[in-house]
Amino acid sequence: MLLSIFATMYHVFLPLSFPVVAGILLRRFRGLDTKPLSVLSLYVLSPSIIFSTLIGARVSASDVGITVSFGLLNLLAMWGVSVLLGRLLKLGDAEKAGLTLVSSFTNCVNYGLPLVLLAFGQAGLDKAAVYVVMQIVIVNTIGVFFAARSQFSIKRAGLAMLKLPALYVAALAGVLRLAEVTLPPSVHTGVNLLSGAYSPVVLVILGAQMIGAAPGAWQPNLQKAFRAGLALRLLIAPLLSWLILLALGAEPLLLGVLLVLASMPTAVNAVILAEQFGASPKFVSRCILWTTMASFILLPLLLVWTRT
Q: Where are the domains of the chain?
Protein backbone atom coordinates (compact mmCIF):
# COMPACT_ATOMS: atom_id res chain seq x y z
CA MET A 1 0.00 0.00 0.00
CA LEU A 2 2.73 2.46 1.03
CA LEU A 3 4.77 1.49 -2.04
CA SER A 4 1.75 2.17 -4.28
CA ILE A 5 1.28 5.61 -2.73
CA PHE A 6 4.93 6.54 -3.33
CA ALA A 7 4.74 5.16 -6.89
CA THR A 8 1.64 7.27 -7.59
CA MET A 9 3.27 10.38 -6.21
CA TYR A 10 6.40 9.72 -8.28
CA HIS A 11 4.69 8.91 -11.58
CA VAL A 12 1.72 11.30 -11.35
CA PHE A 13 2.31 14.10 -8.87
CA LEU A 14 6.03 14.68 -9.37
CA PRO A 15 5.54 15.60 -13.08
CA LEU A 16 2.59 17.83 -12.11
CA SER A 17 4.67 19.61 -9.48
CA PHE A 18 7.22 21.03 -11.94
CA PRO A 19 4.93 23.57 -13.67
CA VAL A 20 3.17 24.28 -10.33
CA VAL A 21 6.50 25.13 -8.66
CA ALA A 22 7.45 27.19 -11.73
CA GLY A 23 4.25 29.19 -11.29
CA ILE A 24 4.95 29.73 -7.59
CA LEU A 25 8.51 30.95 -8.29
CA LEU A 26 7.44 33.20 -11.16
CA ARG A 27 4.75 34.82 -9.00
CA ARG A 28 7.06 35.18 -6.01
CA PHE A 29 10.17 36.53 -7.76
CA ARG A 30 8.92 37.97 -11.06
CA GLY A 31 5.43 39.11 -10.07
CA LEU A 32 3.77 36.93 -12.71
CA ASP A 33 0.41 38.32 -13.79
CA THR A 34 -1.85 35.33 -14.41
CA LYS A 35 -4.63 37.28 -16.13
CA PRO A 36 -3.18 37.02 -19.67
CA LEU A 37 -2.45 33.32 -19.12
CA SER A 38 -5.97 32.80 -17.78
CA VAL A 39 -7.41 34.44 -20.89
CA LEU A 40 -5.21 32.18 -23.05
CA SER A 41 -6.38 29.13 -21.10
CA LEU A 42 -10.07 30.05 -21.06
CA TYR A 43 -10.44 31.12 -24.69
CA VAL A 44 -7.85 29.00 -26.53
CA LEU A 45 -6.29 26.11 -24.63
CA SER A 46 -9.32 24.83 -22.69
CA PRO A 47 -11.61 24.81 -25.75
CA SER A 48 -8.84 23.06 -27.72
CA ILE A 49 -8.41 20.18 -25.29
CA ILE A 50 -12.18 19.81 -24.86
CA PHE A 51 -12.67 19.73 -28.63
CA SER A 52 -9.83 17.28 -29.31
CA THR A 53 -11.01 15.03 -26.49
CA LEU A 54 -14.70 15.08 -27.39
CA ILE A 55 -14.10 14.61 -31.11
CA GLY A 56 -12.20 11.39 -30.53
CA ALA A 57 -13.61 10.30 -27.17
CA ARG A 58 -14.79 6.76 -26.78
CA VAL A 59 -17.71 7.39 -24.45
CA SER A 60 -20.85 5.30 -24.43
CA ALA A 61 -24.38 6.62 -23.97
CA SER A 62 -24.39 4.84 -20.61
CA ASP A 63 -21.26 6.72 -19.52
CA VAL A 64 -22.80 10.04 -20.54
CA GLY A 65 -26.01 9.24 -18.64
CA ILE A 66 -24.13 8.25 -15.48
CA THR A 67 -21.84 11.29 -15.72
CA VAL A 68 -24.73 13.76 -16.07
CA SER A 69 -26.72 12.07 -13.31
CA PHE A 70 -23.72 12.05 -11.01
CA GLY A 71 -22.92 15.71 -11.68
CA LEU A 72 -26.46 16.79 -10.75
CA LEU A 73 -26.89 14.47 -7.75
CA ASN A 74 -23.48 15.34 -6.34
CA LEU A 75 -24.16 19.07 -6.70
CA LEU A 76 -27.49 18.72 -4.87
CA ALA A 77 -25.93 16.58 -2.13
CA MET A 78 -23.03 18.96 -1.47
CA TRP A 79 -25.35 21.97 -1.56
CA GLY A 80 -27.68 20.32 0.96
CA VAL A 81 -24.87 19.42 3.35
CA SER A 82 -23.34 22.91 3.14
CA VAL A 83 -26.71 24.56 3.87
CA LEU A 84 -27.24 22.25 6.84
CA LEU A 85 -23.76 22.93 8.24
CA GLY A 86 -24.17 26.67 7.73
CA ARG A 87 -27.34 26.64 9.80
CA LEU A 88 -25.93 24.38 12.52
CA LEU A 89 -22.85 26.58 12.89
CA LYS A 90 -24.98 29.76 12.74
CA LEU A 91 -22.82 31.34 10.05
CA GLY A 92 -23.59 34.72 8.54
CA ASP A 93 -25.19 35.00 5.12
CA ALA A 94 -21.87 35.81 3.41
CA GLU A 95 -20.15 32.82 5.02
CA LYS A 96 -23.08 30.54 4.12
CA ALA A 97 -22.79 31.58 0.49
CA GLY A 98 -19.00 31.14 0.59
CA LEU A 99 -19.35 27.69 2.17
CA THR A 100 -21.66 26.63 -0.64
CA LEU A 101 -19.10 27.75 -3.23
CA VAL A 102 -16.26 25.97 -1.43
CA SER A 103 -18.17 22.70 -1.15
CA SER A 104 -19.82 22.61 -4.57
CA PHE A 105 -17.21 23.62 -7.13
CA THR A 106 -13.88 21.88 -7.73
CA ASN A 107 -10.78 22.71 -9.73
CA CYS A 108 -11.58 19.92 -12.19
CA VAL A 109 -10.42 21.86 -15.26
CA ASN A 110 -7.06 23.49 -14.38
CA TYR A 111 -5.95 20.73 -12.03
CA GLY A 112 -8.28 17.81 -12.71
CA LEU A 113 -7.73 17.31 -16.44
CA PRO A 114 -3.91 17.13 -16.29
CA LEU A 115 -4.17 14.80 -13.29
CA VAL A 116 -6.67 12.50 -15.00
CA LEU A 117 -4.52 12.36 -18.13
CA LEU A 118 -1.44 11.32 -16.17
CA ALA A 119 -3.25 8.94 -13.81
CA PHE A 120 -5.74 7.28 -16.18
CA GLY A 121 -4.40 8.00 -19.66
CA GLN A 122 -6.40 9.01 -22.72
CA ALA A 123 -9.24 6.62 -21.85
CA GLY A 124 -9.71 8.44 -18.56
CA LEU A 125 -9.52 11.85 -20.23
CA ASP A 126 -12.26 10.78 -22.65
CA LYS A 127 -14.56 9.99 -19.75
CA ALA A 128 -13.67 13.22 -17.95
CA ALA A 129 -14.62 15.49 -20.85
CA VAL A 130 -18.39 15.33 -20.40
CA TYR A 131 -18.14 16.05 -16.66
CA VAL A 132 -15.78 19.01 -17.21
CA VAL A 133 -18.03 20.65 -19.82
CA MET A 134 -20.98 20.15 -17.48
CA GLN A 135 -19.07 21.80 -14.62
CA ILE A 136 -18.24 24.83 -16.79
CA VAL A 137 -21.96 25.34 -17.40
CA ILE A 138 -22.90 24.81 -13.75
CA VAL A 139 -20.27 27.20 -12.33
CA ASN A 140 -21.44 30.00 -14.62
CA THR A 141 -25.14 29.51 -13.88
CA ILE A 142 -25.84 27.85 -10.54
CA GLY A 143 -22.52 29.17 -9.21
CA VAL A 144 -23.72 32.74 -9.73
CA PHE A 145 -26.93 31.90 -7.85
CA PHE A 146 -25.03 30.35 -4.93
CA ALA A 147 -22.74 33.39 -4.67
CA ALA A 148 -25.35 36.08 -5.15
CA ARG A 149 -28.42 34.67 -3.38
CA SER A 150 -30.75 37.69 -3.35
CA GLN A 151 -28.76 39.45 -6.10
CA PHE A 152 -29.21 36.58 -8.55
CA SER A 153 -29.87 37.57 -12.15
CA ILE A 154 -30.82 34.90 -14.68
CA LYS A 155 -29.89 37.28 -17.50
CA ARG A 156 -26.44 37.91 -16.05
CA ALA A 157 -25.80 34.20 -15.53
CA GLY A 158 -26.95 33.40 -19.06
CA LEU A 159 -24.72 36.06 -20.61
CA ALA A 160 -21.70 34.84 -18.62
CA MET A 161 -22.28 31.29 -19.84
CA LEU A 162 -22.75 32.36 -23.47
CA LYS A 163 -19.35 34.07 -23.46
CA LEU A 164 -17.53 30.78 -22.88
CA PRO A 165 -16.07 29.35 -26.11
CA ALA A 166 -15.77 25.88 -24.55
CA LEU A 167 -19.55 25.47 -24.81
CA TYR A 168 -19.63 26.22 -28.54
CA VAL A 169 -16.60 24.04 -29.13
CA ALA A 170 -18.26 21.16 -27.28
CA ALA A 171 -21.42 21.61 -29.35
CA LEU A 172 -19.36 21.69 -32.57
CA ALA A 173 -17.55 18.50 -31.58
CA GLY A 174 -20.91 16.84 -30.90
CA VAL A 175 -22.30 17.88 -34.31
CA LEU A 176 -19.17 16.66 -36.13
CA ARG A 177 -19.35 13.33 -34.33
CA LEU A 178 -23.03 12.86 -35.15
CA ALA A 179 -22.38 13.77 -38.78
CA GLU A 180 -19.35 11.43 -38.80
CA VAL A 181 -17.14 14.18 -40.21
CA THR A 182 -13.40 13.51 -40.17
CA LEU A 183 -11.11 16.48 -39.66
CA PRO A 184 -8.30 17.07 -42.18
CA PRO A 185 -4.95 15.88 -40.76
CA SER A 186 -3.50 19.41 -40.71
CA VAL A 187 -6.48 20.75 -38.71
CA HIS A 188 -6.29 17.82 -36.31
CA THR A 189 -2.56 18.43 -35.82
CA GLY A 190 -3.14 22.14 -35.17
CA VAL A 191 -5.81 21.49 -32.54
CA ASN A 192 -3.62 18.88 -30.87
CA LEU A 193 -0.73 21.35 -30.82
CA LEU A 194 -2.87 23.81 -28.86
CA SER A 195 -4.36 21.19 -26.56
CA GLY A 196 -0.87 19.88 -25.77
CA ALA A 197 -0.01 23.27 -24.27
CA TYR A 198 -3.01 23.16 -21.94
CA SER A 199 -1.59 21.14 -19.04
CA PRO A 200 1.70 23.00 -18.45
CA VAL A 201 0.14 26.45 -18.82
CA VAL A 202 -2.80 25.86 -16.46
CA LEU A 203 -0.54 24.24 -13.87
CA VAL A 204 1.73 27.30 -13.95
CA ILE A 205 -1.42 29.40 -13.38
CA LEU A 206 -2.42 27.12 -10.50
CA GLY A 207 0.97 27.56 -8.80
CA ALA A 208 0.83 31.33 -9.16
CA GLN A 209 -2.74 31.46 -7.87
CA MET A 210 -1.86 29.29 -4.88
CA ILE A 211 0.69 31.77 -3.59
CA GLY A 212 -1.59 34.68 -4.46
CA ALA A 213 -4.63 33.15 -2.73
CA ALA A 214 -3.24 33.51 0.78
CA PRO A 215 -5.37 36.24 2.41
CA GLY A 216 -4.05 39.00 4.61
CA ALA A 217 -5.55 39.65 8.02
CA TRP A 218 -7.62 36.69 9.20
CA GLN A 219 -10.84 37.26 11.12
CA PRO A 220 -11.33 34.82 14.03
CA ASN A 221 -15.10 34.64 13.40
CA LEU A 222 -14.36 32.95 10.05
CA GLN A 223 -12.62 30.01 11.70
CA LYS A 224 -15.81 27.94 11.99
CA ALA A 225 -16.60 28.46 8.31
CA PHE A 226 -13.01 27.60 7.35
CA ARG A 227 -13.06 24.31 9.27
CA ALA A 228 -16.43 23.42 7.82
CA GLY A 229 -15.15 24.16 4.30
CA LEU A 230 -12.13 21.90 4.76
CA ALA A 231 -14.28 19.08 6.14
CA LEU A 232 -16.75 19.35 3.26
CA ARG A 233 -14.16 19.42 0.50
CA LEU A 234 -11.60 16.98 1.88
CA LEU A 235 -13.75 14.39 3.69
CA ILE A 236 -17.45 14.62 2.91
CA ALA A 237 -17.11 15.26 -0.84
CA PRO A 238 -15.12 12.06 -1.61
CA LEU A 239 -17.43 9.94 0.58
CA LEU A 240 -20.66 11.28 -0.92
CA SER A 241 -19.26 11.04 -4.45
CA TRP A 242 -18.26 7.41 -3.94
CA LEU A 243 -21.69 6.47 -2.56
CA ILE A 244 -23.50 8.20 -5.45
CA LEU A 245 -21.28 6.52 -8.06
CA LEU A 246 -21.87 3.10 -6.47
CA ALA A 247 -25.62 3.72 -6.51
CA LEU A 248 -25.45 4.69 -10.20
CA GLY A 249 -23.51 1.51 -11.05
CA ALA A 250 -20.48 3.24 -12.62
CA GLU A 251 -17.86 0.89 -14.02
CA PRO A 252 -14.40 1.04 -12.37
CA LEU A 253 -12.62 3.44 -14.75
CA LEU A 254 -15.53 5.89 -14.89
CA LEU A 255 -15.95 5.64 -11.12
CA GLY A 256 -12.27 6.40 -10.54
CA VAL A 257 -12.21 9.37 -12.93
CA LEU A 258 -15.40 10.99 -11.60
CA LEU A 259 -14.45 10.36 -7.97
CA VAL A 260 -11.08 12.07 -8.48
CA LEU A 261 -12.65 15.03 -10.31
CA ALA A 262 -15.30 15.47 -7.60
CA SER A 263 -12.59 15.32 -4.89
CA MET A 264 -10.45 18.08 -6.38
CA PRO A 265 -9.67 21.16 -4.25
CA THR A 266 -11.96 24.17 -4.36
CA ALA A 267 -12.13 25.87 -7.75
CA VAL A 268 -10.23 29.14 -8.15
CA ASN A 269 -13.35 30.52 -9.87
CA ALA A 270 -15.09 30.32 -6.48
CA VAL A 271 -13.13 33.28 -5.12
CA ILE A 272 -13.91 35.31 -8.25
CA LEU A 273 -17.63 34.80 -7.61
CA ALA A 274 -17.14 35.41 -3.88
CA GLU A 275 -15.43 38.76 -4.54
CA GLN A 276 -18.04 39.80 -7.07
CA PHE A 277 -21.01 39.08 -4.84
CA GLY A 278 -19.60 39.56 -1.32
CA ALA A 279 -19.61 35.87 -0.35
CA SER A 280 -16.74 36.12 2.19
CA PRO A 281 -13.84 36.07 -0.30
CA LYS A 282 -11.12 35.85 2.40
CA PHE A 283 -12.65 32.66 3.74
CA VAL A 284 -13.04 31.22 0.23
CA SER A 285 -9.47 32.11 -0.81
CA ARG A 286 -8.01 30.46 2.29
CA CYS A 287 -10.03 27.31 1.57
CA ILE A 288 -8.67 27.28 -2.00
CA LEU A 289 -5.09 27.48 -0.70
CA TRP A 290 -5.41 24.81 1.98
CA THR A 291 -7.53 22.35 0.00
CA THR A 292 -5.05 22.61 -2.88
CA MET A 293 -2.09 21.88 -0.58
CA ALA A 294 -3.97 19.03 1.13
CA SER A 295 -4.81 17.52 -2.27
CA PHE A 296 -1.16 16.55 -2.77
CA ILE A 297 -1.67 14.10 0.10
CA LEU A 298 -5.34 13.18 -0.31
CA LEU A 299 -5.42 12.54 -4.05
CA PRO A 300 -2.54 10.02 -4.18
CA LEU A 301 -4.36 8.03 -1.47
CA LEU A 302 -7.58 8.26 -3.46
CA LEU A 303 -5.90 7.17 -6.68
CA VAL A 304 -4.32 4.15 -5.02
CA TRP A 305 -7.65 3.22 -3.43
CA THR A 306 -9.56 3.43 -6.73
CA ARG A 307 -7.05 1.05 -8.33
CA THR A 308 -7.24 -1.65 -5.65
A: 2-212+232-307
